[in-house]
Amino acid sequence: MVAKVLQDFDIEQIANSGQCFRIKRETSNIWSVKAFGKKLHITKLGNDEYIFDCTEEEYSNVWYNYFDLETDYSIYKTIIKHSEDPYLISAINYGCGIRILRQDLWETIISFIISQQNNIGRIKNIIERICLPFKGVFPSPTLLKDYTENDFKLLGVGYRAKYIVDIIRDVLDGTLNLNYIKMLSTKDALEYLQKFNGIGAKVASCIALFSLHKIDAFPQDVWIKRIIETRYAGKFPVEKYEPFAGIVQQYMFFYERFLKDA
Predict the structure, then answer these.
(1) Which residue among the candidates 153, 182, 202, 240 is catalytic per the annotation?
(2) 187 catalytic, yes or no?
(3) Of 119, 123, 143, 231, which cross-links 139 as Cys (Cβ 3.0–4.6 Å)?
(4) How many alpha carbons fall within 13 Å on the CB side of residue 249?
(5) How is domain 2-70 classified at the architecture level of CATH?
(6) 250: nearest Cα among 124, 88, 111, 115
(7) Tens of pLDDT along 25-52?
(8) Which CATH number applies to 105-210?
């Protein structure tokens, strides 16, 4: 067990921020997290107090990086508040515990291909069904190499089955080089990813932001496009926040979903 007091961290907000599909609320104050072949339970004791059900070594080697705990998010919040944008100020005040996760690249690629024209609950269920034969661990391309389009359709992925089969083939034959992507700039990573079937601008930006940690990437899904259209007259000043536009995007996405449900 590892006890930590963490600033700018809220596991519930992170779980509901749309960037990850394998964080699950187990009880009123306990969440489970599956990543990198491991399963973690996190207990929230107070506003900033958490218990991580793992060793100190695992916390330092896996979860500290996964939750991006080395980054001081107060710097970004200060810049946003100085922008005097009332909507963004409300968004960061509401989603103040969100952090950009550093997820496994392969899992993130498949997850966001599945996310296209899909809702979060359904995405989570599909991913769990994919992982079920592998003891809950997200399977590698090699483990999925014999899956057909029909196999994936039976798991509920629908028309995205062809994209997944193609991506598995591309990784296995070296056409899609996962290690190479990690060395690219944001611009080059986005261009490279969009060469592959099933990866458009939005999915590529999500992969860049939520796995490669390119925090200048600015994914635009239907929520963000709606915000830009209705609250910014069709033009959001991304350039003002360009070095960390992806973090701004997460605050916007999370807050707008709250407003819709309020």
Answers:
(1) 202
(2) no
(3) 143
(4) 27
(5) 2-Layer Sandwich (3.30)
(6) 88
(7) 999 999 999 999 999 999 999 889 999 9
(8) 1.10.340.30
